[in-house]
Write a structure and sequence with these properties.
It contains three helices and no strands. With 85 residues, the chain is mainly α. It starts with 12 loop residues before the first helix and ends in a 12-residue tail after the last helix.
């Protein structure tokens, strides 16, 4: 099932006129032109929600290991007591 979003967008008059000219030439509606524009934008700018996966790849250390090492610094048994002088 396809989900559809209805929205209101403010578009400057000059852009509407240019859009109408394209729609007339291509025999498509404004709505179809906007759908195509959004699809093209997402294709060029990435629409994948998983773009952050693999961020630690090639860094020599797994992100979870790095996190564990940082937390080990907080472990009281590994903290150095100030020397009593």
């Amino acid at each position: 099932m396809m989900t559809i979003m209805r929205t209101i967008v403010d578009i400057p008059e000059q852009n509407i006129q240019a859009l109408d000219a394209i729609c007339s030439r291509e025999h498509i509606s404004r709505a179809e032109a906007v759908r195509m524009a959004v699809a093209d934008y997402l294709k060029r700018h990435g629409s994948r929600p998983d773009t952050a996966f693999g961020l630690w790849q090639g860094r020599g250390k797994d992100g979870l290991c790095y996190q564990d090492d940082l937390r080990e610094e907080w472990n009281p048994s590994t903290l150095h007591e100030p020397s009593a002088e």
